[in-house]
Amino acid sequence: MNYTRFINGLSAARKPSPIREMTKLLTQGSPDLVFLASGVPNPSMFPFQGASVTLRDGSTIQLEGKTINDALQYGPTQGYGPLLAQLKEMQQKLHSPPCWTNTEVLITNGSQDGLCKAFEMMMNLNDHVIVQEPVYAGTLAILNPYKPQYVPVQCDANGLIPEELRRSLESKWKSEDTQSSKSDVPKVLYVNPAGANPTGVSIPLSRRQEIYQIAKDFDLIIFEDDPYYFLQFDKERTPSFLSLDTDGRVIRFDSLSKVLSSGIRLGYVTGPRELVEPITYHMQVSVLHASSLSQVLVSELLKQWGQEGFLGHVDRVQKFYSQQREIMLKAAETHLTGLAEWNIPQGGMFLWIKCLEVSDTRPMIMDRALKKDVILLPGREFMTDPSQPCPYMRASFSLASPENIDRGFRNLAQLIREEIELTKKV
């Protein structure tokens, strides 16, 4: 592939930071290397001697000696070497990317950091950008300052609809338009494929294959934002877009927030070297690298668990959220039947609820929900045009106890009934 059209002028102008490149050499040199190149602090001046972390099974992870020094020191922008190797091995095992020889992995400060920098690499003011709708509100927050011309593609109970995607593209462009530097044909298709935020839907394999073919036809880069990959509720995880990528047109964003810890702020970007490299250069001049302490801690955990241990852990996490989903579905059936409708989430942490007699949930939630001791997110926040009324709202089943989920939905039902009565009076 020719990636020229996908990298904007600002990103193309970035060059490697010489200091950051030298820091990378520090990890590659022999034990006899005398390193006089950069201002790396002397670890003997750090006040921390060691650290011990206790796991829920009672075992511990000890950080001491070279390991604690690595955890407290500058590191390569691409990531802590041992963790990078572990994540690369995991990506090969889980996704078997067809273009692996030209694929890079980059560790970021959470997956959203990588996603934000990837959009900044590609977007110019007023560019067209294709998104599924409803779409994760954090992605809209990244994109809105570019004043983009959104091409929203509707979703149903099986996620983004391929026919709608093709229709939206063919109504404005031809596939050959991608050959013209003056064309305004979109460059990016953003998709949240498994347990999507906010809908909880997952795109089946047959649709993913259709979507990938459309991306080929219109020379699109697919941003596969997949933080809920490990929280799919079917027995078998659906193959990723990365696993279908024969061209090198998928950038995948993974997160450890949902399965290990959100506070450690670790995610990783996987994609073609030509597109991951500019994101790396951006990191070199912004955050330098993801937290060394977080990276070393996770690497030691993966070393202790092994891949099978990690996958066993995520299976337990998936089972927990699946049980939480069932609790919320039962509460919805008990309290919201006749007031609202919903699809069964196929993954993730959310239930997407449509009020049957409330045309816009935002005033109801923002102005009156707190008085009923319940709060959700109004559907408007997930739409490309938030000025339009929206009857949807998002409820999360990740944190609340079974008792509070039931109480919250009972309160929500009262709120909806009162809103209906209020609307009738108006």
UniProtKB/TrEMBL annotation:
<dbReference type="InterPro" id="IPR004839">
    <property type="entry name" value="Aminotransferase_I/II_large"/>
</dbReference>
<dbReference type="GO" id="GO:0047536">
    <property type="term" value="F:2-aminoadipate transaminase activity"/>
</dbReference>
<dbReference type="GO" id="GO:0050094">
    <property type="term" value="F:methionine-glyoxylate transaminase activity"/>
</dbReference>
<dbReference type="GO" id="GO:0047315">
    <property type="term" value="F:kynurenine-glyoxylate transaminase activity"/>
</dbReference>
<comment type="similarity">
    <text>Belongs to the class-I pyridoxal-phosphate-dependent aminotransferase family.</text>
</comment>
<dbReference type="Pfam" id="PF00155">
    <property type="entry name" value="Aminotran_1_2"/>
</dbReference>
<feature type="domain" description="Aminotransferase class I/classII large">
    <location>
        <begin position="70"/>
        <end position="407"/>
    </location>
</feature>
<comment type="pathway">
    <text>Amino-acid degradation; L-lysine degradation via saccharopine pathway; glutaryl-CoA from L-lysine: step 4/6.</text>
</comment>
<keyword id="KW-0032">Aminotransferase</keyword>
<dbReference type="InterPro" id="IPR050859">
    <property type="entry name" value="Class-I_PLP-dep_aminotransf"/>
</dbReference>
<dbReference type="InterPro" id="IPR015424">
    <property type="entry name" value="PyrdxlP-dep_Trfase"/>
</dbReference>
<comment type="function">
    <text>Transaminase with broad substrate specificity. Has transaminase activity towards aminoadipate, kynurenine, methionine and glutamate. Shows activity also towards tryptophan, aspartate and hydroxykynurenine. Accepts a variety of oxo-acids as amino-group acceptors, with a preference for 2-oxoglutarate, 2-oxocaproic acid, phenylpyruvate and alpha-oxo-gamma-methiol butyric acid. Can also use glyoxylate as amino-group acceptor (in vitro).</text>
</comment>
<dbReference type="GO" id="GO:1901605">
    <property type="term" value="P:alpha-amino acid metabolic process"/>
</dbReference>
<dbReference type="InterPro" id="IPR015422">
    <property type="entry name" value="PyrdxlP-dep_Trfase_small"/>
</dbReference>
<keyword id="KW-0808">Transferase</keyword>
<dbReference type="GO" id="GO:0016212">
    <property type="term" value="F:kynurenine-oxoglutarate transaminase activity"/>
</dbReference>
<dbReference type="GO" id="GO:0047958">
    <property type="term" value="F:glycine:2-oxoglutarate aminotransferase activity"/>
</dbReference>
<dbReference type="InterPro" id="IPR015421">
    <property type="entry name" value="PyrdxlP-dep_Trfase_major"/>
</dbReference>
<dbReference type="GO" id="GO:0005759">
    <property type="term" value="C:mitochondrial matrix"/>
</dbReference>
<dbReference type="GO" id="GO:0030170">
    <property type="term" value="F:pyridoxal phosphate binding"/>
</dbReference>
<protein>
    <recommendedName>
        <fullName>Kynurenine/alpha-aminoadipate aminotransferase, mitochondrial</fullName>
        <ecNumber>2.6.1.39</ecNumber>
        <ecNumber>2.6.1.4</ecNumber>
        <ecNumber>2.6.1.7</ecNumber>
        <ecNumber>2.6.1.73</ecNumber>
    </recommendedName>
</protein>
<keyword id="KW-0663">Pyridoxal phosphate</keyword>
